[in-house]
Amino acid sequence: EKTETNILKGIERMRRFAERSALAAAYPIAMEIIEALQRAAPIDKIEPAGSLRRMRDTIGDLDILVTSKKAE
Predict the structure, then answer these.
(1) Which of 23, 34, 38, 40 lies at 20 to 30 Å from 5 by C-alpha?
(2) Of residues 39, 67, 28, 65, the one with CA closest to residue 50
(3) What is the pLDDT of residues 38-60, one digit of tens each?
C-alpha cells in the first residue's frame, strides 16, 4: 500500500507542473515513480523514455517503458 501511495504522489506532483516542466524538477519525481514500480511489481526492465530519456531541457509528460516475463 505504501508503494502505491508513493506512485500516486509522484503522479500528482507531475500533474501540478505547467504543460512542460524543467528537467531538473521532473527527473527526481520520475525516478521516485520508477523506483516505486520496481519495488511493487515483478519487473525485468524499466527505463524512462521520451523527453526524459533524451534529457531534454523540458519534459511535457512522463513516458516509462516496462517489461516483465510474469503477467499479472
Answers:
(1) 23
(2) 65
(3) 988 889 999 999 999 999 999 98
Give the per-residue SS3 of 22-46: EHHHHHHHHHHHHHHHHHHCCCCEE
Listed residue (60, 56, 52) closest to 33, CA to CA:
52
Q: Could you tell me the maximum CA-CA distance found in the chain, to the nearest angstrom?
A: 36
Q: ∠45-3-43 over CA atoms, to 5°?
A: 15
Question: Could you identify the residue written with the cell 500528482?
Answer: 12
| Cβ atoms within 10 Å of 69's Cβ, excluding its own | 7
DSSP 67: E
Q: What is the pLDDT of residues 8-47, one digit of tens each?
A: 887 787 776 557 888 998 999 899 999 999 988 889 999 9
